[in-house]
Amino acid sequence: xxxxxxxSVTAETKNFWALANDGQLTVPQCRACGKFHWYPRxxxxxxxxxxxxxxxxxxxxxIYSYSVSRRGxxxxxxxxxxxxxxxxxxxxxxxxxxxxxxxxxxxxxxTMVESEDGQRVPMFEPT
Amino acid sequence: xxxxxxxxxxxxxxxxxxxxxxxHNPNAMLKNVVxxxxxLASPMVSSPLHRLxxxxxxxxxxxxIVTRPEIARSLKRPxxxxxxxxxxxxxxxxxEIDLMHSGAAIAGPIAFAEAGVTPADIKYASIYDSFTITxxxxxxxxxxxxxxxxxxxxxDGNLISGVGKLPFNTDGxxxxxxxxxxxxxxxxxxxxxxxxxxxxxxxxxxxxxxxALAQGTGGRLGSxxxxxxxxxxxx
Lengths: 127, 235
Known about the structure:
Largest sheet of chain A: 5 strands, antiparallel
Strand content of chain B: 15-25%
Order of helices and strands of chain A: HEEEEEEE
Structural class of chain A: mainly beta
Number of helices of chain B: 8
Oligomer: heterodimer
Number of strands of chain A: 7
Shape of chain B: globular
Shape of chain A: globular
């Protein structure tokens, strides 16, 4: 599979992406209201606090939904929503394994996949 | 499909109904009537959606004239008035994803409440149809059937004009006629107005069509999108 385009790293997300380059998936948690949220941002989407902490995620979750897209002979990819054990559901890709064997509810584990400019991006593979 | 057991065959019925309508539209991109089997035999694009579960891609546009009742009456055309309208946006809810509902679940009840009518009163519906599943989800969310029963609702030609209980997209819709990017809602309103004026194709004109609904969805159904519901009446 060719590399995916690199994500836009912004002031709000640079810490998240730096940790991803270290191989650590993190989930933002609000210190004020205690809730996890997704995606990373400067203010809590529930209570608007800017006291946000990037908590290391276990890196495991389950497939909430997925679709295998086939746009050409060699360009198959699997887009998915994965619900992390921390509770949030994130849009991502499933890599590795046979796409025809995937199932909703399946356990997956994070893997960092290099994008075009070298930034590593969290994707998931079947456990 | 995972939650409710909606089947690929049921999804295909949405396309079959659209194709029955498109055969009467000389401007439709896809005019051939297709069968459930042909939909299921078309190549898989993004599972579980086959090529024939997907809308066409086209250019296009449209225009509507909205004016005061006294001016409308002076134009000597059948009068169509707006009874109710609703709008909603739906996003990823900060990671609390819900793929079971579209924004129509919010916009629809607002429009029905303002109009003072129920889904059972609607004679014709224009439903945005980027994909076959889009139609089923919105029909459920608008209350034409219970959540999870949209597949059964659309099966066996229930959306075909003259055959089923809820004629939809009699221009062939996005699935067969056209899908101008970001203007899909416009074509939906135009065909609903044609039906209310009695100006739809004679083979597809709904008898005594005095109440119609147009439902639009824009953006990305699975992540963030807007939804608009319009209920119109022939005076």
